[in-house]
């Protein structure tokens, strides 16, 4: 999905009956069906990949990958698209030039033909790419585009081929007549957002589920009045929200410079991070929300806000490390509004408790070539993510969709840096070049040989029990004699 946003011209298609096009080895044809018709008993054997088995998706994908590797020299563009831009039977590729997209389409048809695969449901943001595709194999008919019905599903997300943009709406939700824990969870699960475009709404929904869980209700028990009121308010706001449009193309083809800019934040209820991509094209900056991720704070953990902020920083480090390697972007800037977290990251992991030190060490490994900086909380878009928001609060929120205004003004972002004081829980050392280390060695002439004598823990415990019982009996005998 992320690579699909980097191409100026897109090519998307679906493999028709993919499982049925792959023949199983005779020794592995285990799907047999006994069928009786007209009094005659027959054994029907399924000789292709079976739907519903755990191994089916792997076997089908493996066949596509092997097909791409076998003809990589002959069809380089199609081979790369299958390996990097496909998910099961969906292929989402593209190119920065129209000629490249046409070549990709041609290679995909030829390469898939080598494996007896047929492609259909073709979709592109450029009509010239689909000129030689039969009308019955195009995902959208021309009359649908003319009648403004150009929205299709691409890997679960609504995509408008005419506007070349993703569409997010809450109208997919269904409100049950009698809200219960089961049907509220079922309704919220329809809010499918793997890229985190509406992350604050997802956090709001998760918080409602967390409140429901605290009541320890059965799955089909009606919710209390106060929870029904909270749910109905959230549902009404979501289904009535205007359609949210997120541009697919992030202007990377002709960019002179590209930056990844990440933010993280935490509140008492949740923590999360979001990443923006900034592309400079002909001197003009284009900034787009790339992805976001969030997590609800556990009620039983009782973590402090600084530790939750550190967890948010770790989440950002993992996410930005993956995105930077995927998009091959080296200019990365990471922001947090927690001075304590910045102080932890600037200090040695040995100077802080283990919980903090382990996370600081991992963040350092993931972001060793990236810059961590400070930003005020009011200019931190992940603050919206960490608290959750209603649809009306993010639908036209420039801070969430495009980041703070200072991203447009320059490329260094050093004007928000301030002096970071050491956190109060870190261990302070004297400013001296000389350090004194003290050590002591204690030799136990009784316990150590006792541990070395037995190789079995169970046997050693039994011996210890007998010794303690003997000592206790001796003390009782001495007490009776006195």
Largest sheet report = 5 strands, mixed
Q: Please report the distance between the alpha carbons of the first and last residues.
A: 86 Å
Number of domains: 4
The CATH superfamily of the largest domain bears the name Ribonuclease H-like superfamily/Ribonuclease H
Number of helices: 16
Shape: globular
> Do you know the CATH architecture of the largest domain?
2-Layer Sandwich
CATH fold call of the largest domain:
Nucleotidyltransferase, domain 5
CATH domain class of the largest domain: Alpha Beta
Summing up helix and strand content along with how strands pair, one would put the structural category as alpha+beta
Strands, count:
15
Helix content: 25-40%
> How confident overall, as mean pLDDT?
86
- What topology, given as strand order, has the largest sheet? 13-12-11-14-15
Task: Please indicate the percent range of residues in DSSP E strands (runs of 2 or more).
Answer: 15-25%
Spatial extent as radius of gyration: 30 Å
Low-confidence stretches: 143-147, 415-436
Walkthrough of the structure:
The protein is an alpha+beta fold. It folds into 4 domains: about 5-150, Alpha-Beta Plaits (2-Layer Sandwich), CATH 3.30.70; about 180-245, no CATH class; about 255-410, Ribonuclease H-like superfamily/Ribonuclease H (Nucleotidyltransferase, domain 5), CATH 3.30.420; about 445-480. About 35% of the residues lie in helices and about 20% in strands. The chain has 16 helices and 15 strands. The protein has helices at about 55-70, 75-85, 100-115, 140-145, 180-190, 200-215, 225-240, 305-325, 340-345, 355-365, 380-385, 390-395, 400, 405-410, 445-455, 455-480, and strands at about 10-15, 30-35, 40-45, 85, 90-95, 120-125, 150-155, 155-160, 165-170, 245, 255-265, 270-280, 285-295, 330-335, 370-375. The chain has a 5-stranded mixed beta sheet with strand order 13-12-11-14-15. β7 (about 150-155) and β8 (about 155-160) form a beta hairpin. The longest helix has 25 residues, at about 455-480. The radius of gyration is 30 Å and the shape is globular.
């Amino acid at each position: 999905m992320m690579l699909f946003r980097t191409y100026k011209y897109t090519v998307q298609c679906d493999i028709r009956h993919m499982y049925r096009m792959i023949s199983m080895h005779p020794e592995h044809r285990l799907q047999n069906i006994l069928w009786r018709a007209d009094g005659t008993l027959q054994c029907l054997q399924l000789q292709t990949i079976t739907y519903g088995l755990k191994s089916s998706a792997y076997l089908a994908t493996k066949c596509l990958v092997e097909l791409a590797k076998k003809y990589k020299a002959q069809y380089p563009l199609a081979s790369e698209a299958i390996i990097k831009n496909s998910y099961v039977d969906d292929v989402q590729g593209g190119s920065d030039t129209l000629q490249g997209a046409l070549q990709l389409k041609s290679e995909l048809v030829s390469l898939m033909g080598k494996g007896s695969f047929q492609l259909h449901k073709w979709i592109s943001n450029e009509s010239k790419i689909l000129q030689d595709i039969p009308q019955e194999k195009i995902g959208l008919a021309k009359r649908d585009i003319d009648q403004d019905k150009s929205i299709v599903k691409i890997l679960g997300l609504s995509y408008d081929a005419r506007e070349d943009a993703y569409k997010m709406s809450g109208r997919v939700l269904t409100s049950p007549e009698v809200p219960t824990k089961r049907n509220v969870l079922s309704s919220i699960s329809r809010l499918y957002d793997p890229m985190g475009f509406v992350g604050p709404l997802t956090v709001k929904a998760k918080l409602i589920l967390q409140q429901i869980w605290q009541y320890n209700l059965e799955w089909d028990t009606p919710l209390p009045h106060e929870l029904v009121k909270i749910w109905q308010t959230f549902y009404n706001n979501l289904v009535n929200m205007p359609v949210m449009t997120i541009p697919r193309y992030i202007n990377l083809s002709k960019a002179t410079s590209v930056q990844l800019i990440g933010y993280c934040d935490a509140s008492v209820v949740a923590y999360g991070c979001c990443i923006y991509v900034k592309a400079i094209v002909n001197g003009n900056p284009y900034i787009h929300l790339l992805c976001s991720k969030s997590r609800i704070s556990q009620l039983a953990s009782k973590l402090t806000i600084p530790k939750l902020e550190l967890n948010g920083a770790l989440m950002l480090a993992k996410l930005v490390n993956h995105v930077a390697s995927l998009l091959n972007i080296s200019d990365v800037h990471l922001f947090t509004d927690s001075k304590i977290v910045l102080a932890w990251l600037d200090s040695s992991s040995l100077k802080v408790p283990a919980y903090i030190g382990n996370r600081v060490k991992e963040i350092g490994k993931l972001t060793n070539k990236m810059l961590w900086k400070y930003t005020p909380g009011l200019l931190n878009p992940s603050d919206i993510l960490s608290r959750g928001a209603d649809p009306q609060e993010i639908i036209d929120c420039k801070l969430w969709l495009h980041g703070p205004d200072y991203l447009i003004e320059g490329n260094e972002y050093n004007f928000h840096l301030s002096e970071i004081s050491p956190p109060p829980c870190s261990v302070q050392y004297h400013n001296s070049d000389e350090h004194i280390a003290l050590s002591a060695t204690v030799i136990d002439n009784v316990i150590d040989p006792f541990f070395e004598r037995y190789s079995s823990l169970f046997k050693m415990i039994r011996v210890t029990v007998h010794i303690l019982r003997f000592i206790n009996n001796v003390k009782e005998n001495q007490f009776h004699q006195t």
